[in-house]
Design a protein that fits this description.
5-stranded mixed sheet, 2 domains, Beta Polymerase, domain 2, 247 residues, two-stranded antiparallel ribbon, single chain, alpha+beta
């Protein structure tokens, strides 16, 4: 089973439950921005306790999912996973920790069609904020590059007032200002392009358009360590940041 097929499978199962969810993390930033190699598959979900058994039943059979672990996700780090037994790929599910930004993020999620399947996905503004917040917790070129990629592709349609308001709330206003100037440096080829300011943004946008013609999500083969919510790869950093959940 490929990552694309796994995403389609998870979307069908989630849609069948009626449980509120949204695609987030690197899959969402790939959709809105500059695609990069990833096999992360993250969903933020609103799961009432009465729906836990329904959630487990929806993924039973092809996935290993432990009902007790799901019930424990109402406490930090507010996360559980399901392991696809056909591919050994892991899917992470994150429950909200009750922060205002989490509620806003869910309220603004939008519906799109991904690989022919209706899907709820976080908005580009919220992905930018989320990535900048993760970078604040533990500086990461990958997070900065993802945020810069989304900005490069979506710059003309972004709600900048919304971004400024929540950036101040999350303590990432400085990073957002640098992003607006086209100077937020990410990793790999993004660094050189973004260092050129507006010209770099335009170059990234052209690069993204070319990439998106090849595949809707431009999913790649697995080459990176799985990290929830596109977070840091060091286990010690992940322990600290998991308490942030949706940010």
């Amino acid at each position: 089973m490929t990552e694309q097929e796994l995403l389609q499978d998870c979307l069908r199962r989630l849609n069948s439950t009626g449980i509120a969810y949204m695609v987030t993390g690197s899959m969402a930033s790939n959709y809105w921005g500059i695609p990069r190699t990833t096999h992360d598959l993250d969903f933020a979900i609103q799961l009432p306790p009465r729906s836990v058994s329904q959630m487990v039943a929806a993924f039973a059979g092809d996935f290993f999912i432990d009902e007790q672990a799901v019930r424990e996700a109402y406490h930090p780090p507010f996360q559980f996973n399901a392991i696809d037994q056909r591919s050994s790929l892991k899917v992470d599910f994150w429950l909200p920790a009750g922060r205002p930004f989490e509620r806003e993020m869910f309220a603004r999620r939008i519906e799109r069609t991904l690989f022919g399947i209706p899907a709820w996905i976080a908005t580009p503004e919220d992905i930018i904020l989320h990535k900048l917040y993760w970078d604040k917790l533990t500086p990461s070129e990958r997070q900065r590059a993802d945020a810069a990629g989304v900005f490069a592709v979506q710059a003309e349609s972004l709600d900048r007032d919304y971004l400024r308001r929540w950036a101040d709330e999350l303590g990432v206003g400085g990073s957002l200002s640098i992003l607006f100037e086209g100077k937020l440096k990410g990793f790999s080829g993004h660094t050189r392009l973004l260092g050129r300011g507006i010209a770099g943004i335009q170059a990234l946008r052209r690069k993204a358009v070319r990439g998106r013609t090849q595949a809707e999500f431009h999913l790649f083969r697995r080459r990176h360590t799985f990290v929830p919510f596109g977070g840091p790869t060091q286990a010690s950093d992940r322990r600290d940041e998991r308490t942030a959940a949706l940010g």
